[in-house]
């Protein structure tokens, strides 16, 4: 079972907390340097930013002037630079402009990317070599003002490069380069499809005008001994599979009293994670496979597959949890 973080109004409690990159590179925390955080609030740190499209860095140093990135969008990006490359400030630039729509404030992006250790030139992770895809919601709060200025001048289909840092579990800051090819903008940001056929054994779900779910009340009777999944809406998109970079909306309630404890809808930002990466509770890890994008499901998760039986170990310990999840996107690994 993953090591979930504490409830945090800034982020979903179901994920285990990771120390993220301190620039827009924080779009994913999939590389191996990330680790469970013991911070009191568990919040991810996105303190830095990136540069304007011309490559001027945020606060000093034009580190990317020493980096050459290949421009063939049909092939894995290659980077040429002399290592060790010192990253003294966050930096970013567009390598190849895309021919798609201009990226806007609030867009949720999906990209394919490569991470390279700037100190050694070693490739740490690559979608082209079986690594997961990635992405980010483009807002000032998530990626910083300078990075936001870069992304809102980019177009879908662009290749970008960024320089930044990752703090490892040893507390050391590692200098990294990220190259990403922006594949698409996630849309719509709610489930869309045909009505499912729920069993009626669990509380009714109603949807607001924006698609946000509401639960009719608490669970009557005993909860299940293993996670139960009910299909509320069946989407018409691709099917989720292990290794996917999943993007979704969700709300979670305590089954005992029907009280809401977390919601991506309330935060105004969809949630993404790598399926099978061990970064979410077991009830999520094992029950979001083989779903069509656009689907909405209810997950009724017993304590053993959520936060355990001990309320002293976690404030949701001992609780059966109910989630309603809208599957918005499933970015596959390289086939």
Automatic annotation (TrEMBL):
Source organism, top-level taxon: Bacteria
Sorted UniProt keywords: Isomerase, Rotamase, Signal
Residues of the signal peptide: 1-34
InterPro entries noted in UniProt: FKBP2/11, PPIase_dom_sf, PPIase_FKBP_dom
Disordered, as annotated region: 188-225
Enzyme kind, highest EC tier: isomerase
Catalyzed reactions per annotation: [protein]-peptidylproline (omega=180) = [protein]-peptidylproline (omega=0)
Cited PROSITE patterns: FKBP_PPIASE (PS50059)
Molecular function GO labels: peptidyl-prolyl cis-trans isomerase activity
Residues covered by the PPIase FKBP-type domain: 243-331
Name of this protein: peptidylprolyl isomerase
Lineage, uppermost ranks: Bacteria, Bacillati, Actinomycetota, Actinomycetes, Micrococcales
């Amino acid at each position: 079972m993953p090591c979930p973080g504490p409830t945090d109004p800034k982020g979903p409690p179901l994920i285990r907390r990771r120390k993220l990159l301190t620039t827009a590179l924080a779009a994913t925390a999939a590389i191996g340097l990330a680790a469970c955080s013991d911070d009191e609030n568990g919040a991810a740190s996105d303190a830095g930013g990136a540069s304007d499209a011309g490559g001027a860095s945020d606060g000093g140093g034009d580190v990317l002037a020493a980096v050459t990135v290949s421009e063939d969008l049909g092939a894995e990006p290659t980077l040429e630079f002399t290592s060790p490359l010192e990253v003294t400030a966050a930096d970013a630039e567009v390598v190849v402009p895309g021919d798609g729509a201009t990226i806007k404030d609030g867009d949720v992006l999906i990209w394919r990317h490569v991470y390279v250790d700037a100190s050694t030139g070693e490739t740490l992770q690559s979608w082209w070599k079986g690594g997961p895809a990635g992405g980010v919601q483009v807002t000032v709060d998530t990626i910083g003002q300078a990075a936001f200025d870069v992304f809102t001048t980019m177009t879908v289909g662009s290749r970008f490069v960024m320089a930044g840092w990752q703090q490892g579990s040893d507390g050391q800051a590692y200098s990294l380069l990220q190259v990403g090819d922006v594949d698409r903008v996630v849309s719509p940001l709610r489930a869309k499809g045909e009505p499912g056929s729920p069993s009626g054994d669990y509380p009714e779900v109603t949807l607001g005008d924006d698609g946000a779910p509401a639960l009719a009340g608490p669970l009557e009777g005993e909860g299940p001994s293993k996670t139960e999944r009910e299909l509320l809406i069946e989407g018409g998109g691709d099917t989720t599979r292990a290794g996917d970079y999943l993007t979704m909306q969700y709300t979670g309630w305590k089954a005992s009293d029907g009280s809401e404890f977390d919601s991506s809808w309330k935060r105004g930002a969809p949630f993404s994670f790598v399926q099978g990466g061990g970064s979410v509770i077991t009830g999520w890890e094992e029950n979001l496979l083989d779903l069509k994008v656009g689907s909405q499901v209810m997950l009724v998760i017993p304590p053993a597959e959520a936060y355990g039986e001990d309320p002293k170990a976690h404030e949701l310990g001992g609780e059966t949890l109910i989630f309603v999840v809208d599957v918005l996107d499933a970015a596959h690994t390289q086939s």
